[in-house]
Design goal:
The protein is mainly beta. It contains no helices and five strands. Strands 2-1-3-4-5 form a five-stranded mixed beta sheet, with no helix packed on it.
């Protein structure tokens, strides 16, 4: 699945809402977001929707 067409993608179990549906039961309905930064970096952001934990932001390295 290409992930370079939108500025952000929502991941989670709620297939009618998210861009990338996940079937893993430990994931939230809206679990994480893949976000393209203006400088070209790609971030994976944990939305911390259920457990109320601090938000996790990962700066991903994209290998083309």
């Amino acid at each position: 699945m290409p992930i370079d067409k939108q500025p952000a993608y929502l991941l989670g179990r709620q297939a009618d809402v998210v861009d990338i549906p996940l079937e893993e039961t430990s994931c939230s309905r809206e679990h994480a977001a893949l976000v393209h930064h203006a400088d070209g970096r790609l971030f994976l952001i944990d939305l911390a929707s259920v457990r109320l934990l601090p938000q996790l932001v990962l700066d991903l390295i994209v290998i083309a």
